[in-house]
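A student in our group prepared the protein record below, which I am reviewing. What it holds is a sequence and that sequence's fold in token form. My question to you is simply how this chain folds and whether the tokens agree. Do not assume that whoever made the record got everything right. I have pasted the whole thing underneath without changing anything:
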Amino acid sequence: MLARLQIPSASLARVLLSTHERYLDHLTRAGHPERPARLGAVVEGIRAAGLGDAVVPAIPRAATVEELVRVHAPEHVARIEAFCAAGGGNLDPDTAASAGSWDAALLAAGAGLDAIERLGRGEADAAFCAVRPPGHHATPEHAMGFCLLNNVAVAAATLVADGKRVLIVDFDAHHGNGTQDAFWDDDRVAYVSMHQWPLYPGTGALGEVGGAGAEGTTVNVPLPAGATGDLYLSAVDTLIAPLAARFAPDWVLLSAGFDAHRADPLTGLGLSAGDYAPLTARLAGLVPAGRVVAFLEGGYDLEALGASAAACVGALAGADVLSEPTTSHGPGADAVAAAALLHATFE
């Protein structure tokens, strides 16, 4: 799946590519799907796309404890730091950490914060944070699902503290239970997840719509195995765009997991790398330029991951990055229609 740019990079929007070599110090264990090679696949995929000067390299800063505790319980922050300082190990059957994981996690949580600051200074028009460990399963009190700290939630909470309204769209194949938990009762953040159902972690049912006073700001689109890219675009048009119109977000944050690709070994959805280009473009179009940050979440087939990330970054730049054809005619149209019907009642 070779992705190549088809228009001159001089005509493109600028996209921050935020990453750090310390992410490679987060070691899991032999055979673990969330491995350092994922980061290399993402960076190489973007490089091979030929986006040129449209990609603006950025080295992120670490998040502070004050920024973390806007989302996470102080006890959680202290526990993960101490666990890594003691050499790490297995936090649960899925989630591992090493001595280098705490610094990596701080830099992953800080990447979005740094990107927001850079976009505010006009350094670029959008940002893609190629981070690890990923974040969207980390709840306010627990690490889980390969995730230690919730990177996208930390960024959103900081924006909210600055008086902004935030729309988070999560297209990872797994439901982002940690992000949903963080903002369940907060009507300043809208959270949308399009994910395979049933699948780990078992949350994200259609009827999960938000807590008292925030009903309708949590939106779940549980899709069956085999669902294709046209259903994601349909969800944007019939559900997410109307939500954005009434919610009026200042920022869009993307939990950009690429494990909905049909080659992914952990999931059963039917997307191609090509599907991530129109999906990203439509989501980015919900807010003005300079107000979109994407965060790497899942994606465990290295070739598919690199091509999918390149398509996503290309779309943020306004480019058509060619890889695989888009997909269509998979199952799940009824799930999208049911979600759109349910959330029309909150208008």
Observations:
- The chain has a mean pLDDT of 96.
- The domain at 9-344 is CATH 3.40.800.20 (Arginase; Chain A).
